[in-house]
Amino acid sequence: MIETKAGYREIEHTADWELQVWAPDLPALLEQAARGMYNLAGIQFYPAPRQVHEFDIPAGDPERLLVAFLSELLWILEQDGLGFDTFILNLTGDGLHARLEGTPVAAQSKEIKAVTFHNLAVRQTADGFLVNIVFDV
Amino acid sequence: MINLTDLTRINDYEWEIPQTFRSDMRVPVRIIATRQLLDKVMSNNSLEQAVNAATLPGLVGRVLVMPDMHQGYGFPIGGVAATRLPDGVISPGAIGYDINCGVRLLASQIPFNAAAPLLDELATALDHFCPSGVGGKGELRMSESELDRVCREGARWALKHGLATETDLRRTEEGGCLAGADPSKVSSRAKERGRPQLGTLGAGNHFIEVDIVDQIFDPGAAREMGLELDHLVVQIHCGSRGFGHQICTDFVEDFQAAVRRYNIHLPDRELVCAPLNSREGQDYLAAMRCAANYAFANRQVLANNARKAFEQVFAGKVAHWQLNQVYDIAHNMGKIETHDIDGKQVKVCVHRKGATRAFGPGAAELPDEYREIGQPVLVPGSMGTASWVLVGTHESMARSFGSSCHGAGRVMSRAKAKKEVRGERLRKELEDDGIHIRAGSMAGLAEEAPAAYKDVDAVVETVVGAGLARKVARLRPVVVIKG
Asked: Please, is A126 exposed, middle or buried when counting C-beta atoms within 10 Å of its C-beta (0-12, 13-18, 19+)?
């Protein structure tokens, strides 16, 4: 049962991990997906130092945008050991500009190999957007 | 949802979903399973994913799913599909993100009784010498040009650096090196991820396991492989790490546009593909081979490190402590092979995702010592349960593109396993059973609990019953290292 305007929950999947994510708009959906992915990976953040990271993703359909955004976060996590808790996401006709703030990751209990396109479909609902994302682990 | 009434029973071990089941299917789906194993997948999407796989352009024969099948992403785990050359497709999602994830088996002449007092020390040594865990980095530091050499040379790169023997290479699928790898087709991001990770195990379901040979079913084949009853062996299960994951990620994204260019319509975007003779298909093939070779080298470096651990623990205490390679086999790979299709020798691209090559006796690809008995097929179980050594058969060549199962296969979701299994309790139960555990994460250990997997003995009985493999030996774990 979806009770909040934005959030995520884990869905049963035999081999991998599946998240259901919902939000009132697309940028908020990306943010909730990121928070859900960090939660699945068992990430714990150091309180400091705060760091800012910015990147752009070219325009594409919502599914490609979602996969590219989450894949970028996995890349930053693996290469720089950084995770984010503040998301400023601007979506324009040219694509997504992300300005993220976060801290180094103190611990990560699970490895996510990839964000998949499996049955990926961002759907519009009466309250906003809904998507199920399968992660290869 | 697919029902049992949609399936045609062929015999006790085989079922078929006819091509007429769905209008977009290009070939039928053959399921290798007993009724009992079939029941375990009817409630999830495994069979629907197999039907989706049967829509790929250029398929020949039929799509097969092995008895360890389970729901994956796009293509089911346990799936085998062959596409014709030159215009059939290659699909990165039908090979998987962990390109050339596979298993290596090393045999020793160390009797269990002699090793028993030293097993805990051995677990610590293996854990020390073989880096594991989330994002784990190895001791090797390599430049991009050195990584390019790994991409081109695979396990032979390790031989040049004194980390392998000629026997290791001879007893590795494709000699540990796929031809046609081209590092220029690999993204800089993949290379950045791959450079520090060579010689690491990773996390998830990857492991190093010390087993004892519990039963021997074919003494002649076991002797040829160096397997002796009650003696220690080592299994190494891992793949191409972040290097392979990134290559698959890059091409699944790239192929989202390719399917539109080639007017290919698919039921699932994870199945995106490109014709083998297209620029996109050739680029993926060349990059995928780089990841395959990286994985061969990765398992070779880990094998060398396992040898160091054995030397540290057993040298001077136990005679003949050396580890000799039995075989190394991939279970996530796309390979160009020649198979008999309707009486003709046809060159095809065989996609195996969670399925093992299982070539039968006489295959030219096998080393001399195995040509008479058939290719060793390594089937790891879940920790705490048995693993198996099988050999491929003439039947597997004729009916499954020379393929067999790759493991036990999951049956319980990770979410449920986390809820139902406590990592610390599981660890104690396994240790009470005489299995020495080293695990990076108790939550990760819980997700990989034996209860989350099918009965590997039932899976093996099924491929043997279907004629796709023969039993050689059963293994029982005594040490498990998990990231």
From this structure: exposed
